[in-house]
Amino acid sequence: xxxxxxxxxxxxxxxxxxxxxxxxxxxxxxxxxxxxxxxxxxxxxxxxxxxxxxxxxxxxxxxxxxxxxxxxxxxxxxxxxxxxxxxxxxxxxxxxxxxxxxxxxxxxxxxxxxxxxxxxxxxxxxxxxxxxxxxxxxxxxxxxxxxxxxxxxxxxxxxxxxxxxxxxxxxxxxxxxxxxxxxxxxxxxxxxxxxxxxxxxxxxxxxxxxxxxxxxxxxxxxxxxxxxxxxxxxxxxxxx
Amino acid sequence: xxxxxxxxxxxxxxxxxxxxxxxxxxxxxxxxxxxxxxxxxxxxxxxxxxxxxxxxxxxxxxxxxxxxxxxxxxxxxxxxxxxxxxxxxxxxxxxxxxxxxxxxxxxxxxxxxxxxxxxxxxxxxxxxxxxxxxxxxxxxxxxxxxxxxxxxxxxxxxxxxxxxxxxxxxxxxxxxxxxxxxxxxxxxxxxxxxxxxxxxxxxxxxxxxxxxxxxxxxxxxx
Lengths: 240, 222
Hints:
heterodimer, A: 240 residues, mainly alpha, B: 222 residues, 9 helices, 84% helix
């Protein structure tokens, strides 16, 4: 089942790559191929938002006593990990696109700045996850941190938008939808989003499975260590 | 609840008054950061004057990290945290008390760093009302956010390094808002500052509410 899903994902990604690289036209009014980065940039950004949404949802489900389950916490962590990677990709690809198009690697645009903040917020979240405590303790701290991070994003977006609108006129940012999107381009973009969503689902499944196994191993090792300790004590006691 | 919060705040402030860590370490830290910025900008007067609002808040933000770290390291010593949990005070009031103590220390720091900025960066003070209201709103927001993350990372081995990573991205709205409203007050027209003061106030309200709700459960098992 999982193999099948992986094969389907790879197929979708492959078709997207072919369409994006050879079939779709270069952007007419810019006359170069940088536009093809769009088919990477939009899906990775979408996956990043999706991933953080899933993290927030899973965290809420962990916090509600009736639905509390370690699985939600592990899902939140797995999804956030994938989300951080895709946020990083979004920033890098966007930067690569920005250099030839805007003439600069980075622009203090509202969307860019908020995405960078998002990246650091969830890096912090992942760092918090790695500080070893019990599963329950980690679940509580991380769920609350994930929800605060999720709420902070709209506020940051708002503040950054104001920051720009008040103090910087005429950014180089050129709205995507000013360009007439060609039929094949629109189709490729939709396919790319679907393919990357499948990739996200696959990666989270794998990561979740791994997290489960890690948890199981820790519990087993602990039980083993306790058993060893107990039998060692018995050996010591017997001669006396 | 208010009475309990005052009790906790009083405890923290009394510790600070006697240990003088805030006065002898955090305030000098803020002052040296102000000087470092001047070195970074080659002590160019016009540049420093222009950038003063942002540099002031950057210095404050760095100092907040120290104040939050301090606020929770006093709970680690002698397992004071357990005492706090056993005191029967509810989490919300402990949060309000600790955040209030941090906020008060920050106000003191802001006054001293503010004087340093005025003297060293050649800033003339105008728009006092805007400066005051935005400082209050920003400080409450910073203290509340810092305190939430302080307890979130409390008791963990990597607390000292984790808190800055968690707090700094979360308070970017405060940094932006406070800088912009100070810019409007000191360099532009003060009436431009009000949207920013609103943002700062909204952030402060949200941070205080979130902290009051979340603090109890977070303190429980750490």
